[in-house]
UniProtKB/TrEMBL annotation:
Protein's recorded name: Succinyl-diaminopimelate desuccinylase
Database matches in InterPro entries: ArgE/DapE_CS, Bact_exopeptidase_dim_dom, DapE_proteobac, Peptidase_M20, Peptidase_M20_dimer, Peptidase_M20A
HAMAP family according to UniProt: DapE
Gene this chain is encoded by: dapE
Chemical reaction(s) catalysed: N-succinyl-(2S,6S)-2,6-diaminopimelate + H2O = (2S,6S)-2,6-diaminopimelate + succinate
Gene3D superfamilies: Zn peptidases
PROSITE patterns: ARGE_DAPE_CPG2_2
Organism: Buchnera aphidicola
Record GO terms (molecular function): acetylornithine deacetylase activity; cobalt ion binding; succinyl-diaminopimelate desuccinylase activity; zinc ion binding
The EC number(s) this enzyme carries: 3.5.1.18
Source taxon at top rank: Bacteria
Ligase listed as a keyword: no
The keyword Hydrolase is annotated on this UniProt entry: yes
Length: 377
């Protein structure tokens, strides 16, 4: 079956739009939207392509949000099919971006096209907020578009982000928030020396172990009904290459990441960890990076609409949660009342042989269409 959604998804996958390069993906979407009567505004900045498109007046605004960029393919030799040549095999569509998130973009556009054929006149506004930089820095993408829209007091009532949220069955999981992310580069200083004369040196590895043990088990909070507890993961521990096996190194470098839920703000978490460093009398330097703040969207109305649309098409009631990595929802929440992320299966995202079930692609198109039907009844 070569539906309009499948064809559009293939067309997009065939373009190697490695973040933040769009390479014409957005032109394809824009042409489709212009044909439907949308007004399209380009909000490009530096290396990033963004657009905001809308159609309709009055009533509520439903916005579809997403990104045309993808992560690199990784080792191309390991792919069963060329990553930027959309390939159908056994009911699956293979290619970089199939799940994250060119499939969902295609489903959104086709859902809107079909809705407009059924209902050319409706009260309200349908809009699209699309960027080509979600996967890399994100500096000039959705963040920038949201600041432009916010300046002119643009407001989104309901926003659907097409990130791949499904786990086992299409629509089994949707998200109405995400945890924040911050990381630290920590250096523990000792005194370099001969490994046979430890009394003349201070071993930063030995010094750090009790601290690292407590850090790895540190309970920052217990989570709440919206969020899992905040979590610390140590990602890297190393000494400089300039030491040999008969030396006690002079310093130890440690990296860790914290996914935090906002029960404690980033500053408070940093204070707790600095206290811990003090407790173990460590000589250190630390550099923090805040990658994303947590967000939570109160989605009373939209979750009902989305859940009904999923149940109607796929006979499952979704679990609404805030797990997983960060998303552009953290920017959109500045101008949107209710945000739900709903997309394809996420089991192969960013992996070799990224793929989606073609049946799911069609189902997602139908679910998006039903959301439109329900909102603009
Ligand atoms: Zn994505």
């Amino acid at each position: 079956m070569h539906s309009s959604t499948l064809k559009l998804a293939q067309e997009l996958i065939n373009i190697p739009s490695i973040s933040p390069n769009d390479l014409g993906c957005q032109d394809i979407l824009i042409q489709r939207l212009l044909r439907c009567g949308f007004t399209v505004e380009l909000i490009n900045l530096k290396d990033t392509k963004n657009f905001w498109a809308w159609k309709g007046v009055g009533g509520k605004t439903l916005s579809f949000a997403g990104h045309t960029d993808v992560v690199p393919a990784g080792s191309i030799k390991k792919w069963n099919f060329p990553p930027f040549c959309a390939t159908i095999k056994d009911g699956f569509l293979f290619g970089r971006g199939a799940a994250d998130m060119k499939g969902a973009l295609s489903a959104m556009v086709v859902a809107v096209e079909k809705f407009l054929i059924k209902k050319p006149i409706y009260s309200g506004r349908i809009s699209f907020l699309i960027t080509s930089d979600e996967e890399s820095s994100g500096k000039y993408g959705t963040k920038h578009v949201v600041s432009v829209l916010k300046n002119r007091k643009e407001l989104i009532d309901y926003c659907i982000i097409g990130e791949p949220t499904s786990e086992y069955v299409l629509g089994d999981c949707i998200k109405n928030g995400r945890r924040g992310s911050m990381s630290a580069k920590l250096t523990i200083y000792g005194v370099q020396g001969h490994i046979a004369y430890p009394h003349l040196a201070i071993n930063p590895i030995h010094q750090s172990l009790p601290f690292l043990s407590e850090l790895s088990k540190l309970s920052l909070d217990h989570g709440n009904s919206f969020f899992l507890p905040s979590q610390i993961q140590i990602s890297n521990i190393q000494i400089s290459k300039k030491y040999s096996s008969n030396m006690i190194p002079g310093s130890l470098n440690i990296e860790f990441n914290i996914r935090f839920n906002g029960i404690l703000i980033d500053q408070k978490i940093q204070e707790i960890i600095l206290e811990l460093l003090k407790k173990y009398l460590l000589n250190y330097s630390i550099k923090w990076t805040i990658h994303a703040q947590p967000f939570y969207s109160n989605t009373n109305f939209l979750s009902k609409i989305v859940s009904e649309s999923i149940f109607f098409n796929n006979n499952i009631i979704p679990n609404v949660n805030t797990s997983g990595g960060t998303s552009d929802g953290r920017f959109i929440c500045n101008i949107a009342n209710e945000i739900i992320e709903l997309g394809l299966e996420n089991c192969t995202i960013h992996k070799i042989n990224e793929c989606i079930s073609i049946k799911n692609l069609h189902l997602l198109q139908k679910i998006y269409e039903r959301i439109l039907d329900n909102i603009f009844r």
